[in-house]
Amino acid sequence: MSLKEQIKNDIKEAMRAKEIVRRDTLRNIQAGIKQIEVDERKEVTDADVEAILAKYLKQREDAKAQFAEAGRDDLVAKEDEEIAIVQSYLPEPMSDEELESTLKEIITQVGAESMKDMGKVMGAAKTAIGSRADGGRINQVVKKLLA
Fold it and tell me: Taking the model in full, what pTM does it have?
């Protein structure tokens, strides 16, 4: 079963179980999927769905930070719930050691020697790692390894 189908089925389950936050979160994700399908006129793959999930997760984390700054603990708790739901659909994030070893291999493969080669490394890393680590984390480790 594809990720898109799983989300669709889980929306139905959440509706039956009257899990409002889960239902609404999954509907928002499904709307993002439909938006891509309509705008780009293509059938989304699991990789596309993972990218949508990662983007949605980042939005939720940003909103959580803003709510925490404003002292809105009720909304922080709601964002935490949504974050947990989204993370359940994403692959397990890479550990720091695993990320560093993967990036060392990629640096060797593309023959990167200095910061000038960062673009080549980042392109290959994003393809190889996918949604298991966010771009900012990858960027930090690549800078450390190329410095």
Answer: 0.77
